[in-house]
Amino acid sequence: MVILVLVMAAGTLYCLMGQTTFDNAFQGYDIEPPAIPTDSFTVVRQGTFPGFSDTPVTFDEGQNYRELLTALRGQDYLPFPSLPGAPDGGIAIYYLSGCTPECMAYWDGTFLWLPASAPGRWNRFLPLPPHSLGEQLEKISAGQTP
Is the dihedral of CA 101, 114, 23, 72 positive or negative? Predict the structure, then answer.
């Protein structure tokens, strides 16, 4: 009984102390997602010149980027060990600012995977609450306002 109470207390403490925000967890971009996605979408930020564009991205064209940041910043995350790796079949989210889109996140349906500081390494985070982020990402991917 004492061991069970200690394990529960340690788990509760981990959940409370281990929570982080998207801004604290996000470390950059990677060329490829950590697994093979079944869906993907690309966002562009207002004022940037992606690809070979001579005109900057307009306010309306940058709407999905703002919606994405609002969705990602709208909740806390609990870090989890990245073993095993990300499962195939998720949604890859790309950011385009130059000529090549870079993967900024991967949603596998339960966990949000963000690139780590080392190339090719990804960190796994559980959004709190877990299912609302997936619904928002699917709406953004479909071009709907969440």
Answer: positive
